[in-house]
Amino acid sequence: MVRHVYRCPLRWADMDAYGHVNNVEFLRYLEEARIDFMFRLAPGEGAGGGGTSFAGGSVVARHEIDYRRQLVHRYEPVTIEVWVTEIRAAAATLAYEVKDAPEDGGAVYAQASTVIVPFDFEAGRPRRITAEERAFLEKYLGPPPPAGSAKPGGPGRPGEPGRPGEAAAA
Predict the structure, then answer these.
(1) How far apart are CA 84 and CA 2, in angstroms?
(2) 3-state secondary structure string, the chain?
(3) How far is residue 119's CA from residue 98's CA, in Å, rounded to a whole number?
(4) pLDDT band at 38 (very low <50, low <70, confident <90, very high)
(5) What is the pLDDT of residues 128-152, one digit of tens each?
(6) CA–CA distance from 104 to each of 8, 107, 131, 143 (Å)?
(7) What are 77-97's pLDDT values in tens digits?
(8) How far apart are CA 58 and CA 54, in angstroms?
(9) Per-residue pLDDT at 39 exceeds 90
(10) Which among 8, 114, 152, 170 has the fewest CB atoms less than 10 Å away?
(11) CA end-to-end span of the chain, whole Å?
């Protein structure tokens, strides 16, 4: 299975009062990776030098995010892997893992999914996925990440056993 890899820089302003990247910023990171995947890589000629696929428009019908560990500001970009887990007649589901690069240990910070719907803005309604779009998406088709494949918690997360200064449950 092929995954699209996007390197997303972290911004100082992404942090909240608790000193970690705010949950809303994760949605922005997913958006950046999704736009890079759908508009820069898609075949044809259109948005951003990428393809006509999805250039007529698409909308997000659903987001789901499982936060696995805290992410704090650093100068090294975070890696976001994007792939397709389902293709239907008028929708597709993308999966994401927000994580460190493999050479940096590969720690997973979040796993997410987005249901996208191709949309005809002139007609004001959803449309079917074209054959060209389906062929592009199928190259990235794979299974969703297994539930709980990345353990919740992470350094500094209160209440998680096994962290420095905390006792593990017997």
Answers:
(1) 9
(2) CCCEEEEECCCHHHECCCCCECHHHHHHHHHHHHHHHHHHCCCCCCHHHCCCCCCCCEEEEEEEEEECCCCCCCCCCEEEEEEEEEECCCCEEEEEEEECCHHHCCCEEEEEEEEEEEEECCCCEECCCCHHHHHHHHCCECCCCCCCCCCCCCCCCCCCCCCCCCCCCC
(3) 27
(4) confident
(5) 999 989 999 999 999 998 776 554 4
(6) 15, 8, 39, 24
(7) 999 999 999 999 999 999 999
(8) 6
(9) no
(10) 170
(11) 40
Which tokens sit at 53?
Answer: 């696929």
The rounded distance, in Å, linking the Cα atoms of 50 and 52 is 7
Q: Which of 116, 41, 27 is nearest to 80 (CA)?
A: 27
Q: Which amino acid is at 82?
A: V
Task: Report yes or no: 145 and 96 within 8 Å, Cβ to Cβ.
Answer: no
Where do we find the tokens 């249901």? 115
Within a 10 A sphere around the Cβ of 123, how many other Cβ atoms?
9
pLDDT digits (tens, 9 = 90+) for 46-56: 444 445 567 67
123, 121, 60, 51 alpha-carbon torsion, rounded to 10°: 120
